[in-house]
Amino acid sequence: MRxxxxxxxxxxxxxxxELIEEKFGIEHISTGDLLREAVEKGTPLxxxxxxxxxxxxxxxxxxxxEIVKNKIRxxxxxxxDGFPRTLEQAKILDRFLEENNEKLDAVIEIQxxxxxxxxxxxxxxxxxxxxxxxxxxxPPRLEGICDRxxxxxxxxxxxxxxxxxxxxxxxxxxxxxxxKYYFQKGILRTINGDQDxxxxxxxxxxxxxxxxx
Length: 213
Ligand code: ADP
Ligand code: ADP
Ligand code: ZN
What we know:
Blueprint: E1 2-6, H1 13-24, E2 28-30, H2 31-41, H3 44-55, H4 61-72, E3 78-81, H5 87-99, E4 106-111, H6 114-122, E5 124-126, E6 132-134, H7 161-175, H8 177-185, E7 188-192, H9 197-212
Parallel strand pairs: 1-3, 1-4, 2-3, 4-7
Antiparallel strand pairs: 5-6
The structure holds adenosine-5'-diphosphate (2 copies) and zinc ion.
Zinc ion binds next to loops.
Protein backbone atom coordinates (compact mmCIF):
# COMPACT_ATOMS: atom_id res chain seq x y z
CA MET A 1 0.00 0.00 0.00
CA ARG A 2 0.99 3.60 -0.64
CA UNK A 3 -0.30 5.73 2.18
CA UNK A 4 -0.24 9.31 3.38
CA UNK A 5 -0.85 10.38 6.96
CA UNK A 6 -2.37 13.83 6.99
CA UNK A 7 -2.82 15.66 10.29
CA UNK A 8 -1.72 18.76 12.19
CA UNK A 9 1.54 18.83 14.18
CA UNK A 10 1.36 16.69 17.30
CA UNK A 11 -1.72 14.76 16.16
CA UNK A 12 -0.04 11.35 16.17
CA UNK A 13 1.22 10.79 12.62
CA UNK A 14 4.64 9.47 13.67
CA UNK A 15 3.16 7.25 16.38
CA UNK A 16 0.63 5.67 14.04
CA UNK A 17 3.12 5.39 11.17
CA GLU A 18 5.45 3.34 13.40
CA LEU A 19 2.55 1.05 14.36
CA ILE A 20 1.51 0.61 10.72
CA GLU A 21 5.12 -0.11 9.77
CA GLU A 22 5.36 -2.79 12.46
CA LYS A 23 2.06 -4.48 11.67
CA PHE A 24 1.97 -4.21 7.89
CA GLY A 25 5.69 -4.11 7.09
CA ILE A 26 5.43 -0.87 5.11
CA GLU A 27 8.29 1.61 5.32
CA HIS A 28 7.61 4.81 7.27
CA ILE A 29 9.07 7.95 5.74
CA SER A 30 8.96 11.10 7.86
CA THR A 31 10.09 14.30 6.14
CA GLY A 32 10.46 15.93 9.57
CA ASP A 33 12.88 13.17 10.67
CA LEU A 34 14.83 13.39 7.40
CA LEU A 35 15.12 17.16 7.71
CA ARG A 36 16.22 16.96 11.35
CA GLU A 37 18.87 14.44 10.31
CA ALA A 38 20.18 16.89 7.70
CA VAL A 39 20.15 19.71 10.28
CA GLU A 40 22.14 17.61 12.71
CA LYS A 41 24.70 16.64 10.10
CA GLY A 42 25.04 20.31 9.21
CA THR A 43 24.63 19.71 5.46
CA PRO A 44 23.91 22.82 3.30
CA LEU A 45 20.35 21.57 2.87
CA UNK A 46 20.02 21.12 6.64
CA UNK A 47 21.31 24.62 7.34
CA UNK A 48 18.82 26.10 4.92
CA UNK A 49 15.92 24.03 6.29
CA UNK A 50 16.66 24.89 9.93
CA UNK A 51 15.77 28.56 9.54
CA UNK A 52 12.24 27.64 8.53
CA UNK A 53 11.80 24.81 11.02
CA UNK A 54 12.82 27.01 13.94
CA UNK A 55 10.06 29.46 13.09
CA UNK A 56 7.43 26.77 12.58
CA UNK A 57 7.24 27.56 8.88
CA UNK A 58 7.41 25.16 5.97
CA UNK A 59 10.71 24.37 4.30
CA UNK A 60 10.55 25.32 0.57
CA UNK A 61 8.85 22.72 -1.65
CA UNK A 62 11.86 22.03 -3.89
CA UNK A 63 14.04 20.90 -0.96
CA UNK A 64 11.44 18.55 0.49
CA UNK A 65 10.32 17.18 -2.87
CA GLU A 66 13.86 16.16 -3.75
CA ILE A 67 14.27 14.31 -0.45
CA VAL A 68 10.99 12.44 -0.87
CA LYS A 69 11.55 11.48 -4.51
CA ASN A 70 14.91 9.98 -3.64
CA LYS A 71 13.35 7.98 -0.84
CA ILE A 72 10.32 6.54 -2.63
CA ARG A 73 11.84 5.98 -6.08
CA UNK A 74 12.58 2.31 -5.41
CA UNK A 75 9.78 1.54 -2.97
CA UNK A 76 6.66 -0.40 -3.90
CA UNK A 77 4.97 0.54 -0.63
CA UNK A 78 5.39 3.44 1.77
CA UNK A 79 3.75 5.53 4.47
CA UNK A 80 4.44 9.22 4.06
CA ASP A 81 4.30 11.14 7.35
CA GLY A 82 4.50 14.93 7.03
CA PHE A 83 4.41 14.98 3.24
CA PRO A 84 2.76 16.48 1.26
CA ARG A 85 2.10 19.66 3.20
CA THR A 86 1.19 21.97 0.31
CA LEU A 87 -1.00 21.58 -2.78
CA GLU A 88 2.10 21.98 -4.91
CA GLN A 89 3.79 19.06 -3.12
CA ALA A 90 0.65 16.94 -3.55
CA LYS A 91 0.51 17.62 -7.28
CA ILE A 92 4.20 16.89 -7.76
CA LEU A 93 3.77 13.60 -5.88
CA ASP A 94 0.79 12.63 -8.06
CA ARG A 95 2.76 13.35 -11.24
CA PHE A 96 5.76 11.43 -9.96
CA LEU A 97 3.65 8.36 -9.16
CA GLU A 98 1.79 8.60 -12.48
CA GLU A 99 5.05 8.61 -14.38
CA ASN A 100 5.82 5.29 -12.70
CA ASN A 101 2.28 3.95 -13.28
CA GLU A 102 1.60 4.03 -9.57
CA LYS A 103 -0.98 5.71 -7.38
CA LEU A 104 -1.86 6.37 -3.76
CA ASP A 105 -4.11 3.86 -2.03
CA ALA A 106 -5.30 6.07 0.81
CA VAL A 107 -4.82 9.32 2.66
CA ILE A 108 -5.50 8.86 6.35
CA GLU A 109 -6.61 12.07 8.01
CA ILE A 110 -6.25 12.04 11.80
CA GLN A 111 -8.53 14.59 13.46
CA UNK A 112 -7.52 16.02 16.83
CA UNK A 113 -8.90 19.18 18.50
CA UNK A 114 -6.43 22.11 18.50
CA UNK A 115 -6.14 22.32 22.28
CA UNK A 116 -4.84 18.75 22.46
CA UNK A 117 -2.13 19.36 19.86
CA UNK A 118 -0.06 21.66 22.06
CA UNK A 119 -0.38 19.32 25.02
CA UNK A 120 0.72 16.34 22.94
CA UNK A 121 3.63 18.09 21.31
CA UNK A 122 5.06 19.79 24.42
CA UNK A 123 5.13 16.43 26.22
CA UNK A 124 6.69 14.61 23.28
CA UNK A 125 9.91 12.67 23.74
CA UNK A 126 11.62 11.67 20.49
CA UNK A 127 14.22 9.06 19.62
CA UNK A 128 16.64 9.04 16.70
CA UNK A 129 15.25 5.63 15.67
CA UNK A 130 11.89 7.21 14.82
CA UNK A 131 10.02 6.05 17.92
CA UNK A 132 8.05 8.72 19.84
CA UNK A 133 6.89 8.78 23.43
CA UNK A 134 4.91 11.14 25.62
CA UNK A 135 5.72 12.11 29.20
CA UNK A 136 2.16 11.31 30.31
CA UNK A 137 0.30 9.47 27.55
CA UNK A 138 2.99 7.09 26.37
CA PRO A 139 5.99 7.07 28.72
CA PRO A 140 9.01 4.86 28.05
CA ARG A 141 9.60 1.94 30.44
CA LEU A 142 12.84 3.52 31.67
CA GLU A 143 12.91 7.29 32.06
CA GLY A 144 14.65 9.03 29.17
CA ILE A 145 15.51 5.77 27.35
CA CYS A 146 13.95 4.37 24.18
CA ASP A 147 12.23 0.99 24.75
CA ARG A 148 13.06 -0.13 21.24
CA UNK A 149 16.69 0.82 20.71
CA UNK A 150 18.00 1.94 24.11
CA UNK A 151 18.78 5.39 22.65
CA UNK A 152 18.56 8.58 24.67
CA UNK A 153 15.24 10.42 24.28
CA UNK A 154 15.23 14.13 23.55
CA UNK A 155 12.79 17.03 23.25
CA UNK A 156 12.56 18.65 19.85
CA UNK A 157 13.51 22.34 19.79
CA UNK A 158 10.30 23.23 17.97
CA UNK A 159 8.08 21.47 20.55
CA UNK A 160 7.40 24.62 22.57
CA UNK A 161 4.02 26.42 22.79
CA UNK A 162 5.12 29.46 20.71
CA UNK A 163 6.45 27.45 17.75
CA UNK A 164 3.47 25.11 18.02
CA UNK A 165 1.01 28.01 17.55
CA UNK A 166 2.92 29.00 14.45
CA UNK A 167 3.01 25.39 13.16
CA UNK A 168 -0.74 24.99 13.69
CA UNK A 169 -1.37 28.27 11.85
CA UNK A 170 0.89 27.14 9.00
CA UNK A 171 -1.00 23.84 8.87
CA UNK A 172 -4.34 25.60 8.52
CA UNK A 173 -3.11 27.93 5.83
CA UNK A 174 -1.00 25.62 3.71
CA UNK A 175 -1.94 22.00 4.44
CA UNK A 176 -5.67 22.00 5.17
CA UNK A 177 -6.59 22.48 1.46
CA UNK A 178 -5.19 18.98 0.86
CA UNK A 179 -8.16 17.46 2.69
CA LYS A 180 -10.52 18.68 -0.03
CA TYR A 181 -8.02 17.72 -2.74
CA TYR A 182 -7.86 14.08 -1.59
CA PHE A 183 -11.57 13.94 -0.72
CA GLN A 184 -12.36 14.83 -4.33
CA LYS A 185 -10.05 12.05 -5.48
CA GLY A 186 -12.07 9.64 -3.34
CA ILE A 187 -9.15 8.36 -1.28
CA LEU A 188 -9.56 10.31 1.97
CA ARG A 189 -10.25 8.26 5.10
CA THR A 190 -10.93 10.24 8.26
CA ILE A 191 -10.05 8.85 11.67
CA ASN A 192 -10.92 10.20 15.12
CA GLY A 193 -7.54 10.94 16.68
CA ASP A 194 -9.06 12.09 19.96
CA GLN A 195 -8.82 8.63 21.52
CA ASP A 196 -5.95 6.73 23.05
CA UNK A 197 -3.14 5.48 20.80
CA UNK A 198 -4.37 1.88 20.61
CA UNK A 199 -7.90 2.89 19.65
CA UNK A 200 -6.70 5.24 16.94
CA UNK A 201 -4.58 2.43 15.54
CA UNK A 202 -7.50 0.04 15.74
CA UNK A 203 -9.56 2.41 13.53
CA UNK A 204 -6.70 2.85 11.07
CA UNK A 205 -6.17 -0.89 10.90
CA UNK A 206 -9.84 -1.42 10.03
CA UNK A 207 -9.52 1.02 7.14
CA UNK A 208 -6.31 -0.56 5.88
CA UNK A 209 -7.79 -4.05 5.98
CA UNK A 210 -10.67 -2.81 3.80
CA UNK A 211 -8.17 -1.50 1.25
CA UNK A 212 -6.16 -4.70 1.24
CA UNK A 213 -9.16 -6.97 0.70
P1 ADP B 1 2.99 13.98 14.87
O1 ADP B 1 3.93 13.07 14.14
O2 ADP B 1 1.66 14.09 14.18
O3 ADP B 1 3.57 15.31 15.17
P2 ADP B 1 3.44 12.21 17.16
O4 ADP B 1 3.06 10.84 16.71
O5 ADP B 1 4.86 12.52 17.28
O6 ADP B 1 2.64 13.31 16.27
O7 ADP B 1 2.69 12.45 18.55
C1 ADP B 1 2.85 13.68 19.26
C2 ADP B 1 2.87 13.38 20.75
O8 ADP B 1 1.58 12.93 21.18
C3 ADP B 1 3.84 12.25 21.14
O9 ADP B 1 4.38 12.58 22.39
C4 ADP B 1 2.95 11.01 21.22
O10 ADP B 1 3.45 10.06 22.16
C5 ADP B 1 1.64 11.60 21.70
N1 ADP B 1 0.47 10.91 21.14
C6 ADP B 1 0.32 10.39 19.90
N2 ADP B 1 -0.91 9.87 19.74
C7 ADP B 1 -1.57 10.08 20.92
C8 ADP B 1 -2.89 9.76 21.39
N3 ADP B 1 -3.78 9.15 20.62
N4 ADP B 1 -3.21 10.13 22.65
C9 ADP B 1 -2.31 10.77 23.44
N5 ADP B 1 -1.06 11.09 23.06
C10 ADP B 1 -0.69 10.75 21.81
P1 ADP C 1 5.16 17.31 13.23
O1 ADP C 1 5.49 15.88 13.52
O2 ADP C 1 5.03 18.09 14.45
O3 ADP C 1 4.03 17.41 12.27
P2 ADP C 1 7.41 17.28 11.45
O4 ADP C 1 8.47 16.53 12.15
O5 ADP C 1 6.60 16.54 10.43
O6 ADP C 1 6.43 17.92 12.53
O7 ADP C 1 8.01 18.56 10.75
C1 ADP C 1 8.83 19.45 11.47
C2 ADP C 1 9.15 20.63 10.58
O8 ADP C 1 9.84 20.20 9.40
C3 ADP C 1 7.93 21.40 10.06
O9 ADP C 1 7.48 22.37 10.98
C4 ADP C 1 8.50 22.02 8.78
O10 ADP C 1 9.30 23.16 9.08
C5 ADP C 1 9.44 20.95 8.26
N1 ADP C 1 8.76 20.03 7.31
C6 ADP C 1 8.49 18.71 7.48
N2 ADP C 1 7.85 18.20 6.41
C7 ADP C 1 7.72 19.22 5.52
C8 ADP C 1 7.13 19.34 4.23
N3 ADP C 1 6.53 18.30 3.62
N4 ADP C 1 7.19 20.56 3.62
C9 ADP C 1 7.78 21.60 4.20
N5 ADP C 1 8.33 21.56 5.42
C10 ADP C 1 8.30 20.39 6.09
ZN1 ZN D 1 14.89 4.46 19.74
